[in-house]
Amino acid sequence: MSQARRFLSTAGFDRPAVSTAFEPIFVRPARQADRRTIGALVAIGFPDKFAPIFGRNGEQTARLLAELPSSGTVYVAEHGGVIAGTATLTMSTSAPPPPLWPVLRRHLPFWRALRAFLLLLSMGAAGPASRTAMIEAVVVRPDARGAGVGRALMRTLLEDAERAGREEAALYVVEGNDAAIRLYESIGFAMRRRQAVGIYRGIFGARHLLYMTRRLGPGAPLTR
Q1: How many other CB atoms are there within 10 angstroms of residue 42's CB atom?
Q2: Whole-structure pTM value
Q3: 221 in any annotated domain
Q4: What are the Cα distances from residue 120, in Å, to 8, 32, 224?
Q5: Per residue in 170-182, is it b (16+ CB within 10 Å) or e — as a string?
Q6: What's the domain range around 115?
């Protein structure tokens, strides 16, 4: 996804992330000005997922993702003066679906936009249960991995979900993404079920997604 990396440089990512654990990590809700950077991060973090949907032009995918509305609250992690990671926390059970079509048509020809629209609709999951917070789109810059960015993101999202009164946090992870699974297990998530992806195997690059949950509130495991 070298095109997405070029887009990163125009989105303020021309400086490398500091990869030392001694550099403080600050997690906050994303701002409008962060959207270009978040789009590029997600495009680089999930290249195999988005290429079958939007095409293999990485820069175009990054620009499109920067404009797509989110189903929840997007957070970013700043590390060494740059945005080094992002994640989304969804807690609404009744929010209307985001308007996808206008964004897709701004960036894609009609038939490719229609195909992407139908794929996204068919892949869409129902909102979380009323006492559950869903964590999605967790991405860390490759040059910031191993410095605690993903852990800091997860800790903030879990704290915010607990403050909002949620009793459980949940997420999906691709089977075989061992680094992510180890992180989630280390902060108290456990697998509840394996879900076959069926016709979407080419998008997820695996036969199954793992659905993982973690209890929140009194008695929940500590997150360091």
Answers
A1: 24
A2: 0.85
A3: no
A4: 24, 23, 35
A5: bbebbbebeebbe
A6: 2-215
